[in-house]
Design a protein that fits this description.
- The complex is a heterodimer of chains A (215) and B (273).
- The longest helix of chain A has 38 residues.
- Chain A is 80% helix and 0% strand.
- Chain A contains eight helices and no strands.
- Chain A has 215 residues and is mostly helical.
- With 273 residues, chain B is an alpha/beta fold.
- Chain B folds into two domains: 50 residues; 200 residues, Rossmann fold.
- Chain B is built from twelve helices and six strands.
- In chain B, helix 4 links the parallel strand 1 and strand 2.
- Chain B is elongated, with a radius of gyration of 22 Å.
- In chain B, 52% of the residues are buried.
- The chains are: A mainly alpha (215), B alpha/beta (273).
- Chains A and B meet through helix 2, helix 4, helix 5, helix 6 and helix 7 of A and helix 2, helix 5, helix 6, helix 10 and helix 12 of B.
Chain lengths: 215, 273
């Protein structure tokens, strides 16, 4: 019980208090703590990455042995890992090596292609879901249209009224981003900041314990 | 089903074809639309323009292939500008290991084009675990935190990095990202060490960054492909960013027309009922 509950809470409490104190107290001891924290953090993180790697391999091997749904994809996933490791071992991770070529011409291309599909889904979703059903929706539609036109050069091309001293789509988009958008974002950021501070305090003081596994 | 109902339930394949044409055709039929330079892009350009050949710019390619089309034009434009001005650059991928494969070949290509010497004019650090720890560590001990470059050469042995101790020796940090990495740079490098930060981010994220810009925590901002295109115009080297702006223009027009048509179909069919 002590190892699973009290000890993690003590470690979190001490770490939180020490790191808070070192930030605000400019002493050599603070610098020592900070420097060692960085070295420890990087070292622990590397072990976590190794753990993640083994966990990935274990999950997929189990899926294959149990013939779980879509187990075929697990073979592809494991083969990808083995292929990249072998490629890196054969001729390093330099630009002209197999490792980088596999990454650029397979992995990067697939990633970019999948992400590009979003443009089509967004267009289809905009057509079907973006309805001016209420005054708020109309305001959102107008703001979105102005920003979309203001962020591309064709918006200025269409802004023929600028000859009469009126703002172009670009000017209107900049105003939306700099005034109402910024006010809303700042309010959200303040809320998130205060929430994070509260959560940190709850963690340090041992009030928030869900990270221990449930309850 | 009448005309308006058909319009409301337009086959999505038609939408896909129109979007495809709106993206592809502008690459072949250019209108040569002028691109207005925003103050946030100009701020980064002016800052680098005023640096001397002894200054170092740290560029962090914190992005992955999904946002390569938006951020690589920014990366190339900034590297070109630094190389033209003989400003030294250190490139890394602090936040995202996937950025290594995207950034390293382009950096090498540009260095060859401008005849720059590795270790003297530029250095590539690659990726290392723990972005927040790295950013904080660089403020205390740059060489101790990174230790070696991407090619396993000690930073002490490279003339450029041997002189860098912390953020006082770095004139500007630029984070190119499709995530919240630039905020980490503000939290850990600006707040703790007063490093100068600029960001190049995807268009969908640009709206989030304006509070940081107005507060002076970012000295400038490149927002989406437009930011890249603006920077290309400023350095008089139109490339991928500028070429993509017309495609983006027409795809935005297509989406706006879809929204109008969708609403027209919705309201007219409701009126009939």
């Amino acid at each position: 019980m002590f190892w699973k509950k009290q000890l993690p809470i003590i470690i979190v409490f001490l770490s939180g208090v020490i790191m808070t104190v070192q930030y605000f107290v400019p002493l050599h001891a603070s610098e020592f703590v900070f420097d060692n924290y960085i070295k420890w953090g990087i070292s622990i993180g590397i072990f976590a990455a190794i753990l993640g790697y083994f966990s990935f391999i274990r999950v997929h091997i189990m899926k294959i042995t149990k013939k779980a749904p879509n187990w075929g994809y697990s073979i592809v996933a494991l083969a990808g890992v083995v292929l990249m490791i072998v490629a890196a071992l054969i001729d390093g991770t330099d630009t002209n090596g197999y490792y980088m070529k596999f990454y650029l011409y397979i992995c990067a291309s697939i990633n970019a292609t999948v992400f590009s599909l979003l443009a089509f889904y967004i267009s289809s979703a905009a057509y079907r879901a973006f309805r001016a059903r209420s005054s708020q929706a109309v305001a959102l539609l107008l703001a979105a249209t102005i920003v979309m036109l203001g962020r591309v050069p064709i918006g200025d091309y269409f802004s023929f009224w600028t000859h009469w001293g009126l703002p172009s789509f670009y000017d209107m988009a900049q105003w939306i981003l700099n005034v109402p958008n910024m006010a809303a974002k700042r309010a959200i950021a303040l809320g998130v900041g205060l929430g994070s501070l509260l959560m940190t305090l709850k963690l340090i003081l041992g009030i928030e314990r869900t990270y221990l596994g449930g309850e | 089903m009448n005309f308006w109902e058909k319009l409301e339930k337009l086959d999505r394949r038609i939408i896909y074809i129109i979007i495809t044409l709106a993206v592809v055709l502008p690459f072949f039929f250019r209108m040569g639309l002028p691109i207005k330079i925003s103050p946030e892009t100009k701020a980064i350009y002016d800052y680098i323009q005023n640096l001397s050949p002894t200054d170092v710019v740290f560029i962090s390619g914190d992005y992955d292939p999904q946002v390569d089309a938006e951020l690589t034009p920014m990366f190339e434009a900034i590297v070109r500008h630094c190389f033209e001005r003989n400003v030294k650059i250190v490139v890394s991928n602090v936040y995202n290991p996937q950025g290594v494969g995207l950034v390293e070949p382009r950096l090498k290509k540009l260095a060859q084009e401008y005849k720059k010497v590795y270790g003297v004019d530029y250095v590539f650090l690659g990726w290392k675990y723990g972005y927040s720890l790295l950013i904080m560590g660089m403020g205390r001990d740059f060489k101790g935190t990174w230790q070696t470059d991407y090619y396993n050469t000690s930073l002490e042995d490279l003339p450029l990095t041997s002189k860098i101790n912390n953020y006082n020796d770095i004139a500007l940090v630029i984070s190119l990202t499709g995530s919240g990495a630039y905020v980490a740079w503000i939290y850990y490098a600006y707040v703790q060490f007063k490093a100068k930060i600029a960001a190049g981010i995807t268009a969908v994220m640009a709206a989030d960054s304006y509070p940081y810009l107005q507060a002076g925590q970012l000295i400038g901002l490149l927002g989406g492909l437009r930011g890249a295109a603006e920077y290309e115009q400023l350095i008089h080297h139109p490339s991928l960013g500028s070429a993509g702006m017309e495609a983006q223009s027409w795809s935005h027009i297509a989406i706006i027309l879809f929204i109008i048509l969708g609403n027209l179909g919705y309201f007219m069919s409701r009126k009939k009922k």
